[in-house]
Amino acid sequence: MSPLEQFLADVIALEGPLRIDRYMSLCLGHPRHGYYITRDPLGDKGDFITAPEVSQVFGEQIGVWAVGVWSAMGQPQAFNLVELGPGRGTLMADVLRTVRKVAPAFAVAASVHLVETSPVLRQKQREAVGEAATWHDRLENVPEGPMILIANEFFDAIPIRQFERRAGVWRERVVGLADGRLSLGVGGIVPGTMGKDGDVLEFAPARDEIAREIGSRLAAHAGAALIIDYGHLHTAAGDTLQAMREHRFVPVTETPGEADLTSHADFEKLAHALTEAGAVVQPGMTQRDFLLAMGLEQRFAQLQGKADAATRATLSRQMARLADEAQMGNLFKLLCATAPGMSTPYPFG
Ligand code: SAH
Question: Nearest 5°: phi and psi at 270?
């Protein structure tokens, strides 16, 4: 047993089975043994890869998008450029490089705030973005003010609860012990009659809370938020909890703290929380539609123009990975929320 598995087994022996959100938060964020606390999980040699790690073009296009938002905000001379869960800092580095080129005044006006709990990734971010950024554990600690906020594959890592219906009754899914090993099970009956047997419903109070915090900031100051994640635009039943290790799915209780634990973002619920807090939310769109509208093909063609044959082939593969329907293009969605009264940022609305 790993030290984290032993710790979890001890907690379960003392307190009983753990809710999925508690299990997720301990696996990912345990102060000594948590997955994100102990490693940089990104890249070919890690456990998973994200869009900014696939190609610089992803961050470039978010940078161009952000400049459009800044114009719609009236080009404030000071605003917060916030990123939630910046990973290796690649996306923010690509955004900053792009805006310095296309809108130097944006780059001067922006104060960069990175919300990150992992010390290992904070160090990577420092190397990528430079000392000029400020780091925070939580969005609540970022100073209030006009804001452009970006979150790519952040919400999927925030814990969820799961409920499942069997034999006509709902129970909460939990992680308990079976023969001394961690094992998925269910707790006592909870009230509820909707749905049908076999349904699994997911709730993410922690995600809703962060979305409400974003929404209330947008209600008070000019700005916009761009949330990018894999998931569904409309709430639906289904078990989307998954563990990934070395680019493969593994059982969620097999190697706690050694695998990335995520679940699909429910964009309808995020939109609801943002709206409730006072922001204006545009209909979501797929990553494919967003990137094509932002000029993905033109930018790749430009890069290919100067490249040798091998690089051209690599670039084609990267573009396909970001935007093809069968790859990240359709699974990943974008949600844009703005301050009330602001014009809708292209290409939303
Ligand atoms: N956005 C990056 C990384 C995605 S991985 C990219 O696209 O490559 C998820 C990121 O969220 C990591 O940086 C992880 O350390 C961070 N993270 C996870 N849980 C967090 C939390 N509760 N608060 C802040 N950051 C968190």
Answer: -60, -45
